[in-house]
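hiii, so i know i said id send this last week but things got crazy w the move. better late than never?? heres the sequnce for the chain we talked about at the cafe, plus the structure i predicted for it. fair warning i was half asleep when i ran it
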Amino acid sequence: MRASAIRALRSFVLIAVAMSTSPSVEVPSAQSSDCRRGFCIDNGGDQVDITGGGWEPVPSSPTETPPDATNPEVGNDGGGDNTTPNPVPAPPGPGDLCWDNLTPLGCTTPAPTEPTPTPTQPTYPDTIYNTDLISFTPHDPTATAPNEAMALTNTPLPITLTTTTHTLTGTLLTHPVTVTFTPTGYTLDHGDNTAPTHTADNPATVSHTYTARGQYPTTVTTSYTATVTFPDGIPRPVRGTITTTTPGPTIRILAAHTATVRTTCTTTPAPGC
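okay and structure toks below
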């Protein structure tokens, strides 16, 4: 009897020693720092997180406490043992790998906004010559003479010339422009091979005496100064004078003939009275 008790006691001691000296295997807990390496499993084997950014437990029993986001001492630190809770992952940046439901997605960076280009301001010439205005023709002046432009030989005949300041629009050097013409004088060619008459007045009255009967076509040359205004609104003076030559009135000169008579047309009417 005593020998049997001794053998049973010896077997119990051997079993206890064997259990105390056998190596233990530790399974990483979901609350341990190993969760940050990208793979977690709890002691029950029913909680898995492969993102490394946090975990959400699947309760295995009614007594298991879920993580509390508002209280780091409950659930997130392994039961309030003051371990560091899992950090909240930072939002992905350019070049990072994004995860959505464990599916890798390429993180897209918004394309940079191209600045609105500043429109190039056109440049306009500062110097313009009268030859640049070859496509602009100013208005013709008016030329009038009394008695329907008829006169007797050796009798002065006045001719009145006039025009006004006026503007024309068009294109100059590929730019839209407004050209302003201002009259500065006239030259009247009388048509009888005599020297033309010049005047700087406007309006101007030019008198001329014809010595022979006949018809004389006249020619009027008008002189203008000009300014050109581009879309910037600055008038630019034109170098040189702009002239136009236009037909004037045709003059009819009559000759007067006299004869000696014994009576007057009052006393004795006669042919030619």
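btw The two ends are 197 Å apart (CA to CA). thought thatd interest u
miss u guys!!
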